[in-house]
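Obj.: predict assembly geometry.
Materials: sequence records (below).
Method: joint structure prediction, all chains together.
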Amino acid sequence: MSAIKSTVRAYILENFIMGGDGPAFTDSDSFMELHVIDSTGFLELVTFLEETWNVVVEDAEMTPENLDSLDGIEAYLRSKAVAMPCAA
Amino acid sequence: MLLHQLFEATARRVPDKTALVFDGVRHTYAQLDARANHLAALLQQRGVQRGDRVAGFLDNGVEAVLCLYATLKCGAVFMPVNPLTKRDKLAYLLNDSRASALVSHTVLQAECVHALAQNGSVHTVMMAGTTAVTATEDTRQLPFPAADAPALAPLALPPLIDQDLASIIYTSGSTGDPKGVMLTHLNMVSAARSVSQYLGLVDSDIVACVLPLAFDYGLYQVLMAFQTGATIVLERSFAFPVKALEVLARERVTVFPGVPTIFSLLMQLKTLGEHPLPDLRLITNTAAALSETHINALRGLFPQAQLFSMYGLTECKRVTFLPPEQLDIRPTSVGRGMPNEEVWLVDEAGQRLPNGSVGELVIRGSNVMRGYWEKPHETAKRLKPGPIPGEFILHSGDIFRTDSEGYLYFVSRTDDVIKSRGEKVSPREVEDVLYSLEGVYEAAVIGVPDALLGEAVKAFVSLRPGVSYSERDVIRYCLSKLESFMAPKHVEFVASLPKTDTGKIKKTGLS
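Observations (raw structure tokens):
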């Protein structure tokens, strides 16, 4: 798994799911559909992405394609040409 | 007149008109009516009878709309359950209502399985999102019928009258357990008619629904649109505001119902100007008060639309609305009532108060609930004898003041229920969950002001010696037990909580 995906996965498990009690999600699963993150949760996720990777998430970029799965988030952040602290 | 007959009449009148747009797919009135009839016949075949409770545990979507009408058509009682509900609470709801059927989706399978393991009343489980029924699955379970499912024997029309229950909608209160608000067909038809009338809904309206259908505010968007012959543009939620806005602009919506949190998110969008809603003519708000700042901002952004500031409660659907032209005169009022309803303020002795007073708001009308399901004690606290023998008036539990012309202004609640994101949060329900966390010694939950949410949920927790949790640990635990809007946003650990002389936890000093 890439560093982006593992970092975001850890953040989600830490903040939204209690141990093994929540739904297991794959890299391509929709957070919304599986109820991993709800509407206010996405705002917190955006803040996390902005602070961790020093990017600004524009209004128009707040879409399910960019934010609703680990795959989507990775593709989105790469398109913002983020610099990773370690090899991806 | 029964609730679903309003929809059926529209389906006969304009069968090929688009009733529902969801996820890019358009459904006509005829299509929805046919599928609802099929589902109703199936429920009936499975033994669902008049008065039986059918729980709909679904996200916004076609299945939720079909479940609503199918349940009504076979004479059963529709029980919407928030899809964010966790397994233990779902079990409580199914047991309390002694539900006969559960309609849900595979994404919620885990919660359903665990809840059903604690329940003995449900004999039919219908799962959307799958066509498979394997041998290892629950024998009560069958797939939600697809649009092209083969025909069944027609539905036998149940002997319903408008005094029969149409719905039970659970609501949280001060005590820990949610209560089922019993609503008859008459209650709901009456409410739907009053609201449609004062809003002036017409069949050319295109109504946006970004609200959960599991709450009456969202549910009635569908009921009223289908009664009027309008079109509903249904969204899963407002989680992705720009995406939702694109859909609403493309569909040229004319009506946008929201709550203050949604309007805040909308107004925070810097790109709002790129998604104009030129056809928007009505904006409605309820569930929490709209600040004057919000009101002015909304009117500035959408000058061509009328803004309706409203107030209501599940126990009677809606109480009052402010005629838009009054916004220039008294923007913080919520109005004086609505058609076919009477409201007034009472003092602690229940005596009617004149204009210019402060007191508890009471409601009289055909929209007032029958009571709380199998909770006569709780019911007696809210429904009290009215002016005509045998009738009951609803005590709202909210304190209002009236001006000299009788316009109402919200003052405060009489209980400690929190309103966060426009959703009711029972502090007691959250405290009960906190007490179930190993190592928690005492807990107290209050609401604190929050710019986006209105009120945020804050928990004060004292832990047993040797126990250590982070704020995030506690929040995550609550998220696993409660709907997300009920989980605390803030958790403060304290050595002990303030107490009254009799040793009960005192919340008054907490903030």
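Conclusions so far: The first strand of chain B starts at residue 18 and ends at 22.
To do: check interface contacts against the pulldown list.
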